[in-house]
Amino acid sequence: MTTLRNKQKWRPFFSGLGSLPGLLIFFLLILYPLAALLLQVGFPNVFNTPISWKPSWQPLQQLFANPLNGQAIVNSLILGAGSAILATFLATLVAFARVRGGKKMGKILDTAVWIVFFAPSYVIAQGWVSLMQEGGILSELLNLPNGLTQWFFSKEGLVVVMALRYIPFIYFALVPSIQNIGLEYEQAGRLLGANAGYRLRRITLPLLLPALLAGASLAFAEGFGDFGMAAAITPQMHIPLITYQIYASLDQTPVNYPSAASLSLILIVIMGLAFYLQFHFLKTRSFATISTHSKEQTEIRNHHRGFSLVAFFILFLAFFLPIGSTIIQSLLKNYVTHLDAHSWTLVHYKSLFKPGGSGLQALLRTLVYALTNAFLTMILGLFLAYQMMFRRSKINQFINLLMIATIAVPGIVLAAGFIFAYNATWLIPLHFVIYGTPICLGMAYLAGSLPYAVRLQIGSMQQVSGNLATAAFSLGASNLRVIAQIVMPLVRTTTVSTFFMTMTGTMFELPASSLLYPPGSPPFPETIQQKFNAFEFARGSAMSILGLIIVLLLYMLGRWVESMLLRSSNSVGVE
Amino acid sequence: MNMRYGKLLGIFGSLLGLGFLVSGCQTAASTTNANASQQQNHTTSVSSTGHQQLVLYSAQGYDSAMAQAFEKATGIQVKLDDNSTGTIVAKLEAEKSNPHWDVAWFDGAATMQALANQGMLLEGWKPSDYDNYTSLGKSLVPSSDAYFPGGVTAAAAIAVNTKLVSPSEYPTDWSSLLKPYWKNEIAMNDPAISGPTFPFVAGILQLMGKQQGEAFFTRLKANGLKIFPTNGVTLQALEKGQVKAIMIQDSALVAAKEKGAPIQIIYPSSGVFTLPDVLGIDKNAPDMAAAKKFVEFVLSHQGQQVMLNPQNGGGDSYFNPIIQGESPNPARQQNGIHWVRVNPVQAANQENQIQEWFHDNITE
User: Fold this and answer.
1) CATH for A502
2) Which of A213, A222, A427, B116 has the least CB density, counted as fewest CB within 10 Å?
3) Is there a contact between B193 and A572 if contact means CB atoms under 8 Å apart?
4) pLDDT (average), residues B71-86
5) Most confident of A98-112, A334-348, A558-572
6) Which residue in chain A has the smallest CA separation from B9?
């Protein structure tokens, strides 16, 4: 009894210390680089030569003087919200098909959704464009006259394509929640005479709300801040989007950092607001689906064929169309004007495997970055989410909100922030100018992936009722022990997801790769982009497909390892 | 079992994090040391370490081959950052207070001029092989000597699809495209997105005068001009018969023709606009000597031969040489091109205003 009391006395002290690593990570990876960029909203010459701390309203004035920016913000809000809503609807269908459809179906759907997720935005976008553009692959295959596919290059077309792209975010958050809904809730409903529709509306869906919102908010953030899609599709339709405005002020001459910073500030404020509202809403009620006496949902026998068919159709649209078109593109000879038996070649793949070739070197380099980053993101994401959920303090909540708002910060903005932050002259005497080194690029990768990991982990931890952890703590369990025995088993799926999500993300991450790579050592996504820049679409497509295959193989390996771990832990008899 | 797993995970994680930070500091320290000493006293750092290093930011297709050739010729190690022009300029601007680069190389004198206007480039130095420039070449060197052209292309020429257009209908000048024959059958790139297109628009405004030039684009739009983002898309539209004629950078047209596209390239009689690839040296170049040597290498016969080989540079190799004694790739038209030099100072100063006008009146 005395030991227990002692432990309780020391706990506030340790938990105060506990937020320190989180704070440090957050500061180095996100706050400092972002601040270095956003500082220029008010102090446009702070990184100029000579450095000037003179404040100025000019960047904000210019921002509001350009009517395009206002239109861009409205368009982006519409696109983000539209695609998040549609994606939530589609993903819910697929997720239910997954949980209710038996083991085999589950495996197939999981893999299919993962593949959708693997594919980087710009590859998917490029695939859609070459499929749908006038005289594109679809018109060639179906012999369509000019003008029939033009509807695609519109706001509505973009909403559909983006929604299909964001299904995985919601799906990943949703599936574990559906699986974890304690059967007792539904049984109680059934006992009280509620029919299936009523149970779905009043019991199942409300319990899924945290997961749905977590997924949908990620989808909204993606849609609001997506560059891959915006960069590939919007130039063809001339609709201003906020991401494109930012991209234009950074990547098209004349470069204007203060303007990019101002636009980014607006992006962050809107996203922060959206997430704040979401948290506020969630705080008002409990959404724990796992109580201290849950029964696991046993497999339900009555398979819904309709569900499965719909799910397959959705994934076909989301994946096979754009990726199929990328595969076709990668097998085409240069300058083919129409498809026939003589249009095909494997030369683009063969050239990738030339020994000592630059593509292969870049691929190996990126594999190292991707594995390191995936590992760090997985560990740190778990750690930070745990801190925020079970070690509540004002600092942790503040970090949480800011970190999640940074999900909306486009990669290119954060990457630019890294240049200013880690190439700053005040770091020279400290010997800490890490810009231009692999460490700096690695940190930028981590900064990009960590907020996602934290967000997804919090979503899955929100299901653990606080009682469970409190009970464990009051029984004297250590932090590590609570993590290992209560939290870990519940968030294992999300943890594995985080690993592969991050790995894929890094394999194809473009903005940080191109702005921060150490000269002379280009990573894989950069070499793909160089091919696309040089209009070698076939070569670029072949490289993308190769990258996808590698990630897929690693994913399958990961699933195998996970099932091995699961088996060994079950055999020891831990619940 | 689970607990041990968790504990191990925790320990491993913190070790990894620690290692990550430590290695970060070490690498950072060594790089910064090198940087700082190079910047403070370049010559001593070079003689003490014994080898030089060139950091090259480039958007040119042949840059990788040039880096290798330069390494072989001089023994100076090249660290290449190969990116699009936009990304390179974004990096140069962000690094302004603590630059890491020695030489920047991309298409577009106006863009380079904008960097010179900010005082970022070395001025008042001439390469030793300067006198080998042709007169066209010399005309492209600014009076401040802030940057040097390595070759020149036409920012735009006209190309027609030979399967759809009979020779009697071929246009002869820009204004030919205003004829009803071309209604809804012409395309060009968006100057806000495609680098080579801005000098084309600026060139038209300079050649015809602002009012006449704007009227030309407005009439083209009334004649159904289509705007695609970049060369690749616009070329595809021509090859697939969506349009019958396009106006894009001539080197990209030559490259497409060489690969078998059914097109005929026409140089309009009133003139085409110079789009040189330009090299600028960082005023605070960490390795100034290597930077100067590299510019001289680009202007040398050896360097030009590497650049002119399409195996090395793809489409970028079909440029027009401006060094005496060098001849272009045979696929390229040799004579009858009327070059109009686009004033880079003027173009740089008016870029915002021209881009905005074009976007509001033509692209939208």
Assistant:
1) 1.10.3720.10
2) A427
3) no
4) 92
5) A98-112
6) A379
